[in-house]
Amino acid sequence: MENNKLETATFAGGCFWCTEAVFKRIKGVERVLPGYTGGEVKNPCYREVAMGLTNHAEAIQIKYNPSLISYQQLLAVFFATHDPTTLNRQANDVGKHYRSAIFYHNDKQYEIAKRVIKELNATIFNHKIVTELTLAKPFYNAESEHIDYYDLNKEQPYCQAIINPKINLLLTRFKSVLK
What we know:
This protein is an alpha+beta fold. 34% of the residues lie in helices and 22% in strands. It has six helices and eight strands; from the N terminus they run E-H-E-H-E-H-E-E-E-H-E-E-H-H. Helix 1 runs parallel beside helix 6 and helix 3 crosses helix 4. The longest helix is centred in the middle third of the chain and has 17 residues.
């Protein structure tokens, strides 16, 4: 597979440890990088983002093969594995850097995301989806200690309490798209 055939998706669904752990298990996903996007500060560090000084969200940037997984399928996983109806919060993680956001890379992604949000608002969620739908901005990779965090730290209480349920949901509800 040549890299020029891969497409990019960028999502923020709370803690990037969670979203990275989920999406790296999806077939057709070639790479998942945790990082920061959506803010104004260039090359932010974790501490600045966590303190709310940058307006960035903890996010992941996905490189995927659209012949193996569609953008709409990625969105289905995204919306199922976090709460898109809570503003600036995921479970105990609170702050704008934990917001739900889709950073679209082209008009097609925008249209698909807009349609999916409308459908989910009408059929699935009791509360309105507050997921931000924004044109992709520069993406800054997170520090190395955040890469593969879940897989390297499964025994940590946060991983067991917050990430394990997301992985279990993925394993039961999305078997058809797993690697």
